[in-house]
Design a protein that fits this description.
Among the domains are: about 80 residues, Winged helix-like DNA-binding domain superfamily/Winged helix DNA-binding domain (Arc Repressor Mutant, subunit A, Orthogonal Bundle); about 100 residues, 3-Layer(aba) Sandwich (D-Maltodextrin-Binding Protein, domain 2), CATH 3.40.190. Helices cover about 40% and strands about 25% of the residues. The protein contains 11 helices and 13 strands. A hairpin with a 2-residue loop joins β8 and β9. α1 packs across α2, α1 crosses α3 and α1 crosses α4. It starts with a helix and ends in a 6-residue tail after the last helix.
Length: about 300
């Protein structure tokens, strides 16, 4: 049995979460996929996967072996990409992770343009707001919106976004306009679950840093849900300008306490290594850099 094919099949099963889906992705029969993994386990003398009727999971040995297989397969892909680069052709599967709202609002309109420029690159886009592990979860590149990253990953900054406090005019007419952060204790607040400071909001005001502990009536892990609640006059939100910017421009939402500024976050491409960057990854970074260069901020 081809060891490369065994590793490729094993990784496909782990990534897909099932033998059936892996067989579809690889274009093999389910029996062939099961046989390749079984023969791999027999040759290694260890069980790599826990199998139940409902799900698959990696054993301790499988976790270690999967990480090494990923490294080896990535090395093969990098070698192919290096050869392809000499012919000027970015190609292959490109797995990208991005935040949900930014991915929908600002990245989705660009994917067809990228594909038209690089037709031999197949895109696999995953939108989640949690911070993924690029290496362990098999992503080539992630878009992250954060303070300056402190990470072993390589980062490329595209643009920035401001975090703004806002509410609808109708809500403010009914409940009054907060004039300083401490006034938020008297207001209905819809909070985003993934803020690194939790329910401790911080602002830089005329006299320095101000912190306030809010008591939200609702938490949500999605910025668009915060926006929708604010547009429905349900309370005050703290959200990035790339989500609420148009609403502020049209007056559907009103910025509150502009003299008390919250965070400004960078929008970055993150990838695992500067060495032997695959041509498909470099192509996407260059493409997004050009697309976002006119923005500066969202």
């Amino acid at each position: 049995m081809d060891r490369f094919l065994e590793m490729q099949t094993f990784c496909a099963v782990v990534d897909a979460g099932s033998f059936v889906k892996a067989a579809d992705d690889l274009g093999f029969s389910r029996a062939a996929v099961s046989r390749y993994v079984a023969e791999l386990e027999t040759r290694l003398g260890v069980r790599l996967l826990h199998r139940t009727t409902r799900r698959l999971s990696l054993t301790e040995e499988g976790t270690v072996f999967h990480a090494r297989c990923r490294e080896l397969l990535s090395g093969v892909e990098e070698a192919e990409a290096e050869l392809s680069s000499r012919r000027g052709a970015a190609r292959g599967l490109l797995r990208v992770n991005a935040p949900v709202s930014f991915g929908i609002l600002h990245l989705a309109p660009l994917w067809k343009i990228f594909h038209d420029q690089y037709p031999q690159v197949q895109l696999d886009i995953t939108l989640v707001d949690r911070v993924v592990d690029l290496v362990d979860e098999g992503y080539d590149l992630a878009i992250r919106i954060a303070p300056l990253p402190s990470s072993s990953l390589i980062s490329k900054r595209f643009a920035s976004t401001r975090i703004l406090l806002c509410a609808s005019p109708q809500y403010l007419q009914a409940h009054g306009v907060p004039e300083q952060p401490s006034d938020l204790a008297e207001h209905a607040v819809i909070a985003y679950s993934y803020w690194s400071t939790g329910d401790g909001w911080q602002f830089d005001g005329p006299n320095g840093r101000v912190s306030v502990n809010i008591k939200p009536w609702m938490h949500t892990n999605n910025g668009d849900t915060c926006r929708a609640a604010a547009l429905a006059h349900q309370g005050v939100i703290l959200q990035p300008s790339f989500i609420v910017g148009e609403d502020l421009a049209t007056g559907r939402l009103v910025e509150l306490m502009p003299e008390f500024r919250s965070l400004e976050l960078g929008i970055y491409a993150m990838y695992p290594t500067r060495k032997h960057v695959a041509l498909k990854v470099r192509a996407l970074i260059d493409f997004l850099t050009k697309q976002f260069s006119e923005h500066g901020s969202f």
